[in-house]
Amino acid sequence: MEGIFIMNLPKDVMTALTRDPLFDDWKKQHHKSFMSHFFCSLSSDCVPKTLWEIGFYTPNTKKMVVFVEHENGFEIKPEDDVFTKETDTIEELSMDSVTFPFPEAVSRTKNEIPTVFSGEQLSDGFVVLQKLQGKELWNFTFVTKSVKFANIRIDASSGEVVSSQIVELVRKE
Q1: In this predicted model, what pLDDT tens digit does every residue of 141-152 receive, in sequence order?
Q2: Which of 139, 146, 42 is closest to 100 using CA atoms?
């Protein structure tokens, strides 16, 4: 890639996190928690604006804890509620299934945008690496200038574009 990806890859971030004493202490008290996602803010041209945030879900409390990557380690955010529908299931993210790397997912997304979102001007957005319906996905979402969400989902194993859609944020009456 062009060298614009100065951030660490999720697998490397996860390895660093598991070696961090902050995580080690937290995990001893939350042994039933599991990794659910990686999150990163993006500019409209898919350049990362933040380092990775890694979410861990605790099923018995239905709460999420997020570890934020910093240049010199990690910070833990306070435990918080999960924003999902009652019928949604939070699935465990397996890094072993993520074989299509982030830089290639960004490249695939950039190639898809002009085709699937022609006529839309994208603003900043975010990417979430997560497991949905049994499949690890790079889930890219951008807000458009016309106040819509533009979403592309890429299989994190094969690199296949799984779906793309525009979601209206404001309902016209």
Answers
A1: 999 988 899 999
A2: 139
